C-alpha cells in the first residue's frame, strides 16, 4: 500500500502540472509514479485504479512532448489495465476518461471528425452517469468546443462553451472558467469579431495569471492570431517571438509548431518571405514527426504562400511554373482534410500566378473551382478572392468589372473595420485591402489624362487611404486595469530618465517598461470601440469646402509620383518625379535638419549642413514642383502626402517658403477637421528639462492674459490631461519622443513621467488646436493604407482640429522664437496655417514645423 500512496502523491503533483500546461514536468512525475508502483499487486483494486489514471495522464503528456503515437499506446495500456478492475463505479468512470482522452488526442493530430464522433458518443452518458461536481463533463465540453472551432462549427462550439462556463462557475472550477473564456475568444476570432476575441482572451488571462500561469503562452499565441487577422503584423510577431522560447522550454511540440505557422504569417504580412518560408518549413517537419497531416498541410500552404507572394512582388520576372502547380496540387489535399478556406486560398494564389504568367484560361478554370465565402471565412481570404476576380477582369479586358470588385472588396473591409475597437485595430485592417486599392488606382491612372480621370482617381484615393481619420470617436469606457498599467509605465519611464541622468543602469527598467507597454497595448485593443464611421467625403463636398484654397494630393504608381490638383472646382493630374529619388532626397534632407538643430553648432559645421540642406530642398522643389507653380499661385495649400513624405517640412522648399499650407492624411480627414467647432480656453503647459521652457510659457501669458498656466512641479501628466479637455488652444512645451514601434505610446515628458498619445485618445472633448514645441512629435508611424499614427496623429484622430508640431529635431532657442512668433499671430486671429507660415519663413530649416489637420 505504501507504493500506491507514493504513486498517488506523484500523480496529484502531475495533475497540477498538467492543469498549468507543463507537459514535460507532468510526464517526468508520472514516470516516477510508475516506478513507485513497481510490479503489479495481484487483484489490488487501488493499484489498478492509480495505475490506470497514471497511464491516462501520461498518454496526454507524451502526446505533447513526444508523439501522439506514444500517447495512444499508453491509452491502450490504460484501457487494458482498467478492464482488469472489478465492476465498480470507478471502473465505469475511467471508461469515459480513457475514451474522452482519446477523443482530444485524435483532435490534436488532425482527425477532427473521428474526435467529435467519439465525444458525441460518450458525453451524453457522462452527463447521465457521472454526478459528483461535473468536473469530467465540464472539461470535455470544453475539449469538444475546441474541436468544433477547428471544424468551423460556431454554433456547436458556442453551445458547448456556454454550458461549460455555466458548470465551471456553478461548481467553483475557476481554472476551467478561464479556459471557457479562452474558448469564447477562439470562437469570436473564428467569426471575425476581433475585439470580442481579445476581450475574452484578456478575461481568461486574468484567471490564468492567478491560477494557471502555464497557460499564458498558449493564450498569447491565440491573441497573436487575432492580431494577424486585424493586420497588426509587427505586434503579432513581437508577441510570438516572446512566447516561443517558453513553448520550447515546455516541450509543447504541437503548440511550438502552430506558433511557427503564425510567425510565418506575420513575416508574410511584413514582406519577409524568406523568414516566412523558414518558419513554415520547420513547422511542417514538426507536424510530420507528430503524424499530424492536417497541420502539416497548413504549414505547406504557409510556405507556398510566401513563395507565391515573393514571386508576385518581383515585377521583372514571370513566376516559375512549379509554384502554381504545387498550389493546385495542395488544394484538394487541404479540402480532403476539411480545410475549405485553406483549399480556396491555395487555388486563389495559383490563380494570381497563372495570370502573371499570362495563362488566363488556366486561371479562369481554377477560379471557377473556388466556392463562395462562408460566414467564418477570414477577411484576408475574402480580399484575396476579390483581388483574383479583379485581376482576371483586367486580364480579360473588363476594367469596369475589376473596379467593381475592388469597390465591393473595400466596402466589405470597411464593414470589418467598423467593428474594431481601439485605434490600432482600426488602422491595422487596411493591410488586407492594400492590393485591391493599388489595382484600382493603377487602372484609373492608366486611363485618359483628363478631368474625368482626375475626379475618379481622387474618389478612389479617399476610399483607400487614412480611413481611421473618418471615424467620430465614441465615449470612452474606462478600464481601471489599463489605467493602472499606464500609471506604472509613467513611473518606470520617469525612473529611467532619472537613472540616465545619474549614470545608473536602466536595462531592467527598460525591460519592465517594454512588458508594461505590451500589456497596455493589449488592453487598449478592446476596452472601447474606437468610433462611429462617417461617410467618405465626396468630390463636391471637398470642392465647396476648399473655396480659394488649392488641394495637392500626391499619388504613387509604382516608380512614379503624380500630383492631383483641385483648384476652383477643376481637377487635374500632373506627373512629378521619380519616386525612389524623391524619397531618398527627403531622407537626406531630414538628416540634414536633425544635424542642424542644436543651438550651439560650430559656425563652420552649421554653414556646411545648411548648405547641404538648401541644395536638397532645391532639388526636391524641382522634382515635386514640376508645372505646379501656376496652379498654386499665392493660394493657401492643403497637401495630402504619401507615407514617406510625411517627414518633409514643406516650407523648406523655395517655392513654398512663407506659403500657408496644411498637411492632412486625406481630404476626408481635412474636411472633418474643418467642421469641428471652435473653443476659446487657452492652456500653457511647460514640462521639465527644456532650457528656457518655463520662461517661454510665462512669456506667453502676455499674449494670452487669461490662459491657464501649468508649469514647474504642477506640470504632471494628470494635470495636463485634465486641462487639455475642452481647451481651445493648448501650447505644450516639453521634451517628447516619437515611438516608431508603437506610435500610440509616443510621449510628452512631464514632471511625473510621460503623457502618452494613447491617453489623449481618451479625451471626451479634445483640444481644438494643439501646439507641440517638442522635437519630432509631429512624426508618424505609417501603416499600410497610409494610416499615419503618432502623438499628433492620435490627437487628430481623436477630434482635434489642428496640431502644429516639429517634423524633425529643433533647437530649444529656435523653437522658443518660432513659438513666440506663432502665438502673436494666432492671438491676433490669424488662421493657424497662415500664422505658422509667417513664423517659419524667418528660418524654415531650423523651424521645421508643420500645420496638420485643418489650417
TrEMBL record:
<feature type="domain" description="CHAT">
    <location>
        <begin position="617"/>
        <end position="839"/>
    </location>
</feature>
<dbReference type="InterPro" id="IPR024983">
    <property type="entry name" value="CHAT_dom"/>
</dbReference>
<dbReference type="InterPro" id="IPR011990">
    <property type="entry name" value="TPR-like_helical_dom_sf"/>
</dbReference>
<dbReference type="Pfam" id="PF12770">
    <property type="entry name" value="CHAT"/>
</dbReference>
<protein>
    <submittedName>
        <fullName>Tetratricopeptide repeat-containing protein</fullName>
    </submittedName>
</protein>
<dbReference type="Pfam" id="PF13424">
    <property type="entry name" value="TPR_12"/>
</dbReference>
Amino acid at each position: 500500500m505504501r507504493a500506491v500512496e507514493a504513486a498517488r502523491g506523484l500523480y496529484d503533483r502531475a495533475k497540477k502540472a498538467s492543469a498549468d500546461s507543463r507537459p514535460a514536468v507532468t510526464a517526468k512525475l508520472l514516470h516516477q509514479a510508475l516506478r513507485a508502483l513497481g510490479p503489479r499487486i495481484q487483484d489490488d483494486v487501488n493499484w489498478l485504479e492509480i495505475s490506470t489514471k497514471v497511464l491516462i495522464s501520461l498518454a496526454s503528456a507524451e502526446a505533447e512532448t513526444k508523439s501522439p503515437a506514444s500517447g495512444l499506446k499508453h491509452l491502450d495500456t490504460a484501457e487494458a489495465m482498467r478492464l482488469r478492475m472489478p465492476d465498480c463505479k470507478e471502473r465505469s468512470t475511467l471508461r469515459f476518461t480513457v475514451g474522452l482522452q482519446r477523443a482530444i488526442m485524435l483532435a490534436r493530430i488532425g482527425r477532427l471528425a473521428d474526435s467529435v464522433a467519439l465525444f458525441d458518443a460518450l458525453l451524453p452518458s457522462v452527463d447521465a452517469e457521472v454526478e459528483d461536481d461535473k468536473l469530467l463533463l465540464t472539461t470535455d465540453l470544453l475539449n469538444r468546443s475546441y474541436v468544433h472551432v477547428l471544424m468551423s462549427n460556431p454554433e456547436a462550439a458556442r453551445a458547448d462553451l456556454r454550458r461549460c462556463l455555466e458548470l465551471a462557475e456553478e461548481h467553483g472550477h475557476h481554472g476551467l472558467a478561464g479556459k471557457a473564456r479562452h474558448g469564447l475568444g477562439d470562437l469570436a476570432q473564428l467569426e471575425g469579431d476581433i475585439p470580442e476575441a481579445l476581450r475574452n482572451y484578456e478575461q481568461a488571462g486574468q484567471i490564468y495569471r492567478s491560477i494557471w500561469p502555464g497557460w499564458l503562452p498558449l493564450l498569447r499565441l491565440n491573441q497573436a492570431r487575432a492580431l494577424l487577422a486585424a493586420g497588426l503584423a509587427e505586434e503579432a510577431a513581437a508577441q510570438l517571438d516572446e512566447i516561443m522560447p517558453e513553448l520550447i522550454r515546455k516541450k509543447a511540440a504541437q503548440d511550438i509548431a502552430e506558433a511557427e505557422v503564425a510567425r510565418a504569417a506575420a513575416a508574410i504580412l511584413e514582406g519577409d518571405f524568406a523568414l516566412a518560408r523558414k518558419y513554415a518549413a520547420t513547422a511542417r517537419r514538426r507536424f510530420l514527426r507528430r503524424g499530424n497531416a492536417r497541420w502539416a498541410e497548413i504549414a505547406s500552404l504557409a510556405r507556398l504562400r510566401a513563395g507565391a507572394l515573393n514571386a508576385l512582388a518581383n515585377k521583372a520576372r514571370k513566376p516559375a511554373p512549379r509554384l502554381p502547380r504545387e498550389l493546385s496540387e495542395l488544394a484538394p489535399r487541404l479540402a480532403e482534410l476539411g480545410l475549405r478556406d485553406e483549399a480556396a486560398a491555395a487555388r486563389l494564389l495559383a490563380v494570381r500566378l497563372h495570370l502573371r504568367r499570362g495563362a488566363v484560361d488556366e486561371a479562369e478554370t481554377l477560379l471557377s473551382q473556388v466556392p463562395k465565402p462562408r460566414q467564418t471565412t477570414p477577411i484576408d481570404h475574402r480580399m484575396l478572392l476579390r483581388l483574383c476576380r479583379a485581376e482576371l477582369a483586367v486580364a480579360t479586358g473588363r476594367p469596369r468589372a475589376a473596379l467593381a470588385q475592388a469597390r465591393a472588396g473595400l466596402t466589405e473591409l470597411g464593414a470589418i473595420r467598423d467593428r474594431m475597437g481601439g485605434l490600432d485595430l482600426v488602422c491595422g485592417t487596411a493591410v488586407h485591402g492594400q492590393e485591391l486599392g493599388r489595382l484600382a488606382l493603377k487602372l484609373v491612372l492608366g486611363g485618359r489624362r483628363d478631368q474625368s480621370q482626375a475626379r475618379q482617381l481622387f474618389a478612389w484615393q479617399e476610399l483607400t487611404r487614412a480611413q481611421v481619420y473618418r471615424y467620430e470617436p465614441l465615449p470612452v469606457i474606462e478600464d481601471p486595469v489599463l489605467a493602472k498599467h499606464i500609471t506604472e509605465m509613467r513611473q518606470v519611464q520617469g525612473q529611467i530618465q532619472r537613472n540616465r541622468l545619474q549614470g545608473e543602469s536602466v536595462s531592467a527598467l527598460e525591460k519592465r517598461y517594454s512588458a508594461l507597454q505590451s500589456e497596455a497595448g493589449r488592453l487598449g485593443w478592446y476596452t472601447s470601440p474606437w468610433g462611429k464611421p462617417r461617410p467618405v467625403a465626396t468630390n463636391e463636398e471637398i470642392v465647396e469646402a476648399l473655396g480659394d484654397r488649392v488641394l495637392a494630393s500626391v499619388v504613387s504608381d509604382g516608380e512614379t509620383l503624380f500630383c492631383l490638383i483641385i483648384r476652383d472646382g477643376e481637377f487635374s493630374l500632373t506627373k512629378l518625379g521619380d519616386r525612389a529619388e524623391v524619397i531618398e532626397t527627403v531622407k537626406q534632407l531630414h538628416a540634414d535638419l536633425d544635424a542642424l538643430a542644436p543651438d550651439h553648432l560650430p559656425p563652420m559645421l552649421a554653414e556646411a549642413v545648411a548648405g547641404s540642406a538648401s541644395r536638397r530642398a532645391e532639388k526636391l522643389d524641382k522634382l515635386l514642383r514640376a508645372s505646379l507653380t501656376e496652379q498654386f499661385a499665392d493660394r493657401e495649400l492643403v497637401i495630402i502626402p504619401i507615407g514617406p513624405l510625411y517627414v518633409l517640412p514643406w516650407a523648406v522648399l523655395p517655392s513654398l517658403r512663407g506659403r500657408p499650407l496644411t498637411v492632412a492624411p486625406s481630404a476626408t480627414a481635412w474636411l472633418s477637421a474643418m467642421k469641428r467647432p471652435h473653443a476659446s480656453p487657452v492652456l500653457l503647459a511647460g514640462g521639465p528639462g527644456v532650457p528656457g521652457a518655463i520662461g517661454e510659457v510665462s512669456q506667453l501669458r502676455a499674449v494670452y492674459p487669461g490662459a491657464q498656466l501649468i508649469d514647474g512641479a504642477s506640470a504632471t501628466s494628470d494635470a495636463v490631461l485634465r486641462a487639455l479637455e475642452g481647451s481651445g488652444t493648448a501650447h505644450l512645451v516639453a521634451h517628447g519622443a516619437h515611438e516608431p514601434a508603437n506610435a500610440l505610446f509616443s510621449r510628452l515628458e512631464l514632471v511625473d513621467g510621460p503623457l502618452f498619445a494613447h491617453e489623449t485618445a481618451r479625451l471626451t472633448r479634445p483640444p481644438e488646436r494643439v501646439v507641440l514645441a517638442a522635437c519630432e512629435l509631429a512624426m508618424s508611424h505609417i501603416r499600410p493604407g497610409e494610416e499615419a499614427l503618432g502623438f499628433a496623429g492620435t490627437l487628430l484622430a481623436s477630434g482635434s482640429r489642428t496640431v502644429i508640431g516639429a517634423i524633425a529635431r529643433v533647437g530649444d532657442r529656435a523653437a522658443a522664437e518660432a513659438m513666440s512668433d506663432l502665438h502673436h499671430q494666432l492671438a491676433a486671429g490669424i488662421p493657424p496655417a497662415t500664422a505658422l507660415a509667417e513664423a517659419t519663413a524667418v528660418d524654415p530649416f531650423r523651424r521645421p514645423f508643420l500645420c496638420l489637420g485643418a489650417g
